[in-house]
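Re: the request from the purification team.
They wanted to know what the chain is likely to look like in 3D before they choose a buffer screen. I agreed to run a prediction and write the result into the notebook, where they can find it.
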Amino acid sequence: MGSSSAAGLSKEGDELHILAVDDNIVERLFVEKLLKGSAYKVTTADNGFRALEYLGLGDEPYVILKSNISKISLVITDYCMPGMTGYELMKKIKESPGLKDIPIVIMSSENIPTRIEKCLEEGAEEFMLKPLQQSDVKRLRCHETSRERFQENPIEIGHKPFFPMTNGASKTEQN
């Protein structure tokens, strides 16, 4: 994991806390720098499995307090990663009752329309082409989650199967 401590993701005031997932260290550091430059709090993960562990969705069942989950503002993930694609990560998060409302943005250097469509149809808020630009990062604020959406009750989350992945474009671009 990167910048932030694993103690928790937080949103303090207007500061959004973003979990950025990319297996390429250069890309991950670049995205982190862009996000921090726009006053986002950033935690990084180098693969989908580490991101799931950070969110409490590893292979073993976990009990997570929704109050901790509500501190997550957004997940931005690379599409092409070894072991688990960004699409598979998104599906896993969307299957979790306590995490399903967290916006997921998928990024990729590959502009493949069928992947773009599938990601958006399956729950991605937006698809961004790499390399990300400052204008892309500024658009993330509109995807933040509301803390009031979650209640402070524990939920149990167990292992669920992964699904195959494809990339998407912005939902707003398709409407």
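For the purification team: The helical segments are 25-37, 48-54, 66-69, 86-95, 113-122, 134-139, 171-174.
Please add any questions underneath this entry.
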